[in-house]
User: Fold these one by one.
Assistant:
Number 1:
Amino acid sequence: MPVLIVSGTGTEIGKTVVTAAVAATALARDLDVAVLKPAQTGVGSDEPGDVDEVIRLAGGVTTVELARFPEPLAPATAARRAGAPPVRPHEIAETAGKLATEHDLVLVEGAGGLLVRFDEEGGTLADAARLLAAPVLVVAPAGLGTLNTTALTAEALRARGLAALGLVIGSWPAVPDLAARCNLADLPDVAGAPLLGAVPHGAGALTPARFRRSAADWLAPALGGGWDVARFTADAAPGARSRAAWDAGTGSAER
Ligand SMILES: Nc1ncnc2c1ncn2[C@@H]1O[C@H](COP(=O)(O)OP(=O)(O)O)[C@@H](O)[C@H]1O
Ligand SMILES: [Mg+2]
């Protein structure tokens, strides 16, 4: 799995934090890691972008940004308004492919969700994923509403012949509500892909040393970590599948 596309159900859902966790886990296993952010929007030329946040949290990775547009908009729109050339899917694929010849793992973080447009022709991260034949990691929120956006994302992937490697919950609350707990059981079903991790809420605010020590505990073996979905679900949501199990005392609404 030299190239992994990190997409998700939307913006501000934890793609960068998850990218940093996957990178930190790979670095701890002595892998050479590169992170490609094809189009960074919403930050000025002298401000830190997502790849800088990955370096801060995870440490020594190679980073590449193909373009930066200051307005916080979809890349195609931001490029048009900036009067700048857009980033094309084939450029994303070529850059990721080149990085993959020099690194063990290349993480490509999209902008917003899967079908956000990068150019005026409607090119998306999904097109780049197809050119690369790369698997897609879907980052999803924990709570109410995530089943629909996750199902839509999974369906869009399937319609394009792309494979979802799995799902990672971008920010798992310290006190998960009923929807978040039930979603642990339902997310893999609606996505047709396994749950491969849950990054705790607040992880992005840990010290980098703590973040690097903990990251492997948030990610499943498929992502190089030691996270166990069955144990996590049993601990966090013993009644996710059955209200009777809940009422029998294996779970509590007050947890
Ligand atoms: N697990 C987490 N712990 C702490 N902060 C988080 C976590 N997930 C997301 N955030 C915060 O939420 C915001 C959006 O997360 P980010 O990873 O940048 O999302 P995206 O890349 O999908 O836009 C950021 O300010 C980030 O620090
Ligand atoms: Mg991001």
Number 2:
Amino acid sequence: METKTFKTTTLSRLGYGCMRFPKIPNTENSIDVDKSKALIKLAYEQGVNYFDTAYTYHNSESEKFLASALASYPRESYYLATKLPVWVTKNLEDCKTVFETQLKNLNTDYIDFYLLHALDKDKFKFVKDNGVYDYLLEQKKNGRIKNLGFSFHDNYTVLEEIVNTYEFDFAQIQFNFVDYLFQNAKKEYEILTNKNIPIMVMEPIRGGALANSELSKDSKYNLVNLAFRFVASFDNVQVILSGMSNEEQVKENLNSFSNLTPLSEEERNTLNLVRDKFLKSKVISCTSCNYCQPCTKEIVIPKLFSLYNELLLSSNKKAFLDSYPTFAKTGKDCIDCLKCVNHCPQKLKINKLLKEIDSSYTYLRGAETP
Ligand code: SF4
Ligand code: SF4
């Protein structure tokens, strides 16, 4: 297992994401304890020492399960990461209650890596308005939190606000070979690196979507292996999380992380081709039938979808950036009335797609600005 130094500790490059354990058949979230314990044991014994759970994972079963799975190992031999979901709280007192519950769930008196979970603009506002950061800092001073961080899902301008407001020991972002070039990941990486904030990576293969059978079928390479090595090649990436659900995945990942050699040119080219194929598969299947027109807010939906599809197919960012502002109304004007959705024969989630396009525009515009 390859490792990397974090302050005075040595972390495995592979972290066990504890949100996709095998489940008991016909249950929504109940963890199959025996099967899952065997996976944790295999990973731990082969050098994985970073375990990333959350209060909400597996219907709030994940933390307790993880504690039981690691109970026979010395506490100092592994590192626990868990997260505070401010959206289940109403105020600071609720946050305190959640934190105390998490210590009990994990059967520990300290948490190695504690994250504000899935920060976005609204959740960060809650954190600021309710003094949550100061409370967590106090817990850090008391030794109950060793490292304080956050996971993140929003536009990079929000990320800038977060890291310019408070100090953090680490951050967790979605980062992979598709998001690096097409979504916010490159910019987010740069913002965090400029602030000297080490990065824990989530969704290195987007829950398997970047290495599915369709994308893999013509490749002589193991795409999962290439995807991990792509992410691992960035200096400021510390731990790469993978939510492993079966023995085959654990063994395959252990194998990848035993030798994270840099990608060859041919391997990089392969990832570029896979990325293009993946993006093309994301093309919006709008037929320009116009049944969704007129939109309540006068958004010219089919033309926007057509413009976005051109971007996916040609990667011509300039054409997209030049044309998008010429639309008087876009996704940011959508009020989610769903009138269009109810009329679309392709059953497209039009309101959501419009907002995704708007986010892409905001990101690409920012990324193109020197
Ligand atoms: S959901 Fe949005 S895009 Fe659709 S009709 Fe309403 S305002 Fe227009
Ligand atoms: S109804 Fe659906 S398929 Fe037709 S133009 Fe509108 S979004 Fe496209």
